[in-house]
Design goal:
Layout lengths: L1 E9 L3 E3 L9 H11 L3 E5 H7 L7 E5 L11 E3 L2 H7 L5 E4 L3 H7 L5 E9 L7 E2 L8 E9 L9 E8 L2
Parallel strand pairs: 1-6, 1-7, 3-4, 3-6, 4-5
Antiparallel strand pairs: 2-8, 7-10, 9-10
The structure holds NADP nicotinamide-adenine-dinucleotide phosphate.
Length: 164
């Protein structure tokens, strides 16, 4: 099992505000769907509530300290360790945020890759992606895009791999 962090991150590392995404970038949503379809997602309770429902075609594990938390079509874990334990038979497990969860997962040995959409704009928000330490993470793929009629900001799809 390997964990793959997947996130869309502004220049200033903001990922959201007031429990919402701050931009609409259909190209990123499409990539998220393509990469995660048929796989497992792990996410924090706040991110789940921000999405509002289980995403079709994906096993979803929500991390919460609330022992009685329930969400239709999802599994619940009381911490990161329990979430990892539940999904250990799955090959690729995507960690879909938010900020609290990325921060706790990024340093774990299981976290092997980061699929990051860098949105080249600054936003004011209250959730952040952690700094990516270049000594620990190597940039292995980079695809740059200009804005178009559907996607209002320039952006890049970046893939990082954990160095040994
Ligand atoms: N741009 C992106 O790619 C992206 C992706 C995902 C999310 N987001 C944004 O990020 C924001 C949400 O992120 P966030 O950091 O506020 O919240 P979050 O990480 O989604 O969820 C935080 C919650 O997870 C649970 N949790 C965290 N650590 C835990 C642990 N060790 N053990 C048990 N439960 C734990 C707690 O739930 P309880 O309070 O229920 O105990 C905590 O309140 C939103 O604005 C969302 O739109 C952006």
């Amino acid at each position: 099992m390997k964990l793959i962090l997947i996130a869309a991150v502004a220049n200033n590392n903001v990922i959201g505000g007031d429990n919402k995404l701050l931009w609409h970038l259909p190209a990123d949503l499409k990539r998220f769907k393509k990469l995660t379809m048929g796989h497992t997602l792990i996410m924090g309770r706040k991110t789940f509530e921000s999405i509002g429902k289980a995403l079709p075609g994906r096993r979803t594990v929500i991390i919460t300290r609330q022992s009685d938390y329930k969400a239709k079509g999802c599994e619940i874990a009381s911490d990161i360790k329990e979430a990892i334990c539940k999904v250990r038979e799955d090959s690729d497990v995507f960690v879909a945020g938010g900020g609290e969860i990325y921060r706790q997962v990024m340093g774990l040995h299981y976290a092997r890759r980061i699929f990051l959409t860098r949105v080249y704009a600054n936003f004011e928000g209250d959730s952040f992606f952690p700094n990516i330490d270049p000594e620990k993470w190597e940039l292995v793929e980079r695809e740059e895009f200009q804005p178009d009629e559907k996607n209002p900001y320039p952006f890049a799809f970046l893939t990082y791999k954990r160095r040994k």
